[in-house]
């Protein structure tokens, strides 16, 4: 007779934190991450996390730094612990002891238009060609591409409906005629394979009832980059970076790009101005104007 696994009871403290997160509408993935970071803190303390002191928090963050934990991970743990102390424990005094780690802001890797074309051509099949085409053609995040439903494609208004993107915000993304044609090719092929369900996922995974995973998309991007002979570090997000940079180089207003990307702050979008090489090359250096001025003086002297 098979023995059913024994489920570990959820502690009252953990249950309270789960309820606090659910009330505030945190995503299930965020809830899992927050619980995991609090568990990591408790493991460091070797006692319940609600018994922590200000010195415990300091020791934990010193331990993270000395262990080589990267700034993004440290900052995620800060967010989790701040929620735990401020909301669940009502101890904002402890929350203020947490220090964010400074992370060097690197310029994003961007593909040229030619490289994007080669990458799409090398994609493994029409499904992934359409997936990568959507990431680039609409500037979507990989999670947003994976979560698209068939009904999110509005060919009448030439829009893509992005539901509950980053920050739990809905927005409209652009749908170009070229992307629509590519998606229709995939739709026809998907119907032939019997994987396109009515009102179902635009890009089904191994089962038609489930969406393609971000891991599958990542693997397809890496395979396509290798096949295309692209030596840059390429990920699905590289296509989003390239979308924004190429629009900026086409003189699209940066505030329009901000809306298309779903950025809350213009500062985030402004980063692309630092990698838009065509835009940089089009600017006349003041040294050139100085040289022209000096030549003019020499000719009249």
TrEMBL record:
The keyword 4Fe-4S does not apply. The keyword Transmembrane helix does not apply. PROSITE patterns: CB, TYR_RECOMBINASE. GO terms for biological process: DNA integration; DNA recombination. Residues 8-89 form the Core-binding (CB) domain. Residues 106-285 form the Tyr recombinase domain. This is Phage integrase family protein. Keywords: DNA integration, DNA recombination, DNA-binding. The lineage of its organism: Bacteria, Pseudomonadati, Pseudomonadota, Alphaproteobacteria, Acetobacterales. GO terms for molecular function: DNA binding. Pfam families: Phage_int_SAM_4, Phage_integrase. SUPFAM superfamilies: DNA breaking-rejoining enzymes. Belongs to the 'phage' integrase family. PANTHER family: PHAGE INTEGRASE-RELATED, PROPHAGE INTEGRASE INTD-RELATED. It comes from the Bacteria.
């Amino acid at each position: 007779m098979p023995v059913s696994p024994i489920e570990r009871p959820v502690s009252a403290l953990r249950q309270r934190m789960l309820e606090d997160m659910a009330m505030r509408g945190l995503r299930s993935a965020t809830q899992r991450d927050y619980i995991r970071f609090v568990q990591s803190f408790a493991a460091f303390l070797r006692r319940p996390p609600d018994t922590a002191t200000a010195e415990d928090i300091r020791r934990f963050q010193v331990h993270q730094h000395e262990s080589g934990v990267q700034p993004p991970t440290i900052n995620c743990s800060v967010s989790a612990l701040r929620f735990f102390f401020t909301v669940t424990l009502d101890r904002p005094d402890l929350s203020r002891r947490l220090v964010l780690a400074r992370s060097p802001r690197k310029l994003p890797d961007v593909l040229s238009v030619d490289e994007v074309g080669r990458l799409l051509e090398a994609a493994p099949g029409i499904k992934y060609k359409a997936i990568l085409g959507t990431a680039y053609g609409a500037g979507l995040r990989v999670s947003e591409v994976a979560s698209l439903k068939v009904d999110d494609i509005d060919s009448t208004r030439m829009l893509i409906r992005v539901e509950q993107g980053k920050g739990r915000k809905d927005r409209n993304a652009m749908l170009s005629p070229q992307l629509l044609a590519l998606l229709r090719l995939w739709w026809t092929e998907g119907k032939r394979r019997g994987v396109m369900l009515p009102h179902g996922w635009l890009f089904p995974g191994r089962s038609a009832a489930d969406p393609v995973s971000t891991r599958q998309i990542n693997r397809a991007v890496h395979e396509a980059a290798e096949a295309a002979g692209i030596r840059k570090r390429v990920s699905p997000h590289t296509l989003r970076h390239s979308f924004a940079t190429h629009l900026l180089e086409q003189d699209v207003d940066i505030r329009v790009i901000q809306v298309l990307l779903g950025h809350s702050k213009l500062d985030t979008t402004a980063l692309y101005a630092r990698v838009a090489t065509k835009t940089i090359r089009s600017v006349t250096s003041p040294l050139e104007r100085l040289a022209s001025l000096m030549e003019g003086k020499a000719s009249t002297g």
